[in-house]
Amino acid sequence: MDDAALARNLVLAWPLALVVVATAVRQARTGDVLTRAPAAFLAALWVWVTVHVVEVTTSWWTFAPSSTSLLGVPAEVSLGWALLWGALPVLAGGPLWAWVAGLAWVDLLTMRLADDLVALAPGWVAGEAILLGAGLVPALILGKATRERTWLPVRAGLQVVLFPAVFGWLVPTVALARDGLTWMSVVDHPYPMRALLLTAAVGLGVPGLAAVAELARAGGTPFPWDPPAHLVTSGPYAYVSNPMQISIAGLMTLLTAATGSLVLAGLTAFSVAFSVVLAERHERATLSARWPAHDDYRRHVRSWVPRWRPWVAAPATLWVSEACALCSATGVVLDSLAPTGLERRPAEAAPVALVRMRWQAGDPPDSDHSDGIAAFARALEHTTLPWAWLGWCMRLPVVRPWLQVVADACGLGPRPLVRTGADDRMRP
Asked: Where, by residue number, does the polypeptide cross the bilayer (predicted)?
């Protein structure tokens, strides 16, 4: 074994040993290793992906050639980094600031001593700072938030970055490299084709992002060990049970078509087969055991073929003003689309004072509701698949606030209403 191979093995061995010790101590003291393990996995995955992103996009480190290298980083190094920066802090516990300070010091020290393993370019310390900020800190936050089930927007947002980074960047990058291709192959097409590819990518990506937002509204994330508080059957889930898997598989298929990569085609086929044969069965059994209503939901909603109209378990209400001509006209337009499971009522007769259109599922005070642009988008989701897609896009966390600002600027802002106290129902 040469010096470089020995160094690679040591880089993996000592973080692995620390993780084993931390696991044993944690289990002996508190017995909560199984509850911490999913958070440790997410944190480690974040670090592992970030190491490859920084290595591919910069030139601060050059690792010695190895048969185990992936995108220029030996597997032993990337896994050791992931265990040390991601899994160990979650399993061992402790204040985040102490882990940042301690691991930064250890990293700076070991990088200078690893001459047989890596060649450092001028300015490599700046690369370390970037890796600490983009890799270590988010990993610690993601691990803590997942373990404690706190900071829901943060952990959901980090997962929105993490999983597309794995399936939308890391896997395709490796596949393209195996075929002698690069990301330039994706855009190496005439302008009309590039525009078509971009349009298709947006079309395929929106359902997955909307599904994440829907899970977050219910208190959960896409990660199976960080589930929502109740069964989610709204949003994209009213049309298909696997919106995120469809988005990922669709985008990988689109990349395959754009590049002609045979390796990526094989990986895409494998991911779909894995989802259909193994993952879906396990998920269905788990969700059915957790929520008895899941069986009834799956009898109406397919896994991979979306419905044309949504399956609505419980009807919702759209409160629309009769006094506002534009609001009333909007309600009439929605009626013309024959929404499923949606009843329109006058906002003046709502049980609470309203100043915007409101979509409401359930009864106050525990009802789920959306106001303004989000309410209109929700109503579109009760119609047909194309209109629902538009509604999902409108409700995305980044899109919705801007649309609401534009609508308010155009005179569609809050309107005080004279409440009638009557509940005159309008056309469903």
From this structure: 6-25, 37-63, 83-105, 117-141, 161-181, 193-213, 246-279
Claim to verify: residue 69 and residue 214 sit in the same structural domain:
no
Tell me the DSSP string of 261-277. Answer: -HHHHHHHHHHHHHIII
Q: Which residue has the tokens 């089930």?
A: 149
| Residue range 31-49, pLDDT digits in tens | 999 999 999 999 999 999 9
**Do 213 and 160 touch, CB atoms closer than 8 A?**
no
Omega of the bond leading into 122 within 30 degrees of 0 (cis): no
In the block, residue with structure tokens 């992936």: 70
Assess whether 281 and 382 both reside in one domain: no
Q: Are residues 51 and 142 in the same domain?
A: yes
Provide the token pair at 44: 């480690």
Domain stop point among 259, 282, 307: 307
Contact (Cβ atoms closer than 8 angstroms) between residue 54 and residue 134: yes
Sole residue written with tokens 């938030």 = 145
Q: Please, is 176 exposed, middle or buried when counting C-beta atoms within 10 Å of its C-beta (0-12, 13-18, 19+)?
A: buried
Q: Collapse the DSSP code of 74 into the 3-class scheme (helix H, G, I; strand E, B; otherwise coil) and give the result.
A: strand
Alpha helices in 218-368 (DSSP H): 243-259, 262-274, 280-290, 293-300, 325-336
Strand (E) or helix (H) holding 316: strand 316-320
Burial 108-129, CB ≥16 within 10 A → b, else e: eebbeebeebbebeeebeebbe
| Structural domain span for residue 355 | 316-412
Q: Are residues 249 and 364 in the same domain?
A: no
**What's the pLDDT band for 6 if we cut at 50, 70, 90?**
confident
Q: Letter for the amino acid at 19?
A: V
The Cα–Cα gap between 79 and 418 comes to 64
Residue 309 — pLDDT band, cuts 50, 70, 90?
very high
In-domain check, residue 294 = yes
| Residue 372 exposed, middle or buried by CB count within 10 Å (0-12, 13-18, 19+) | buried
How many Å apart are CA 264 and CA 249, to the nearest integer?
11
**Number of domains, the chain:** 3
In a domain, 418, yes or no: no
Q: Judge whether 417 lies within some domain.
A: no
Are 275 and 353 found together in one domain?
no
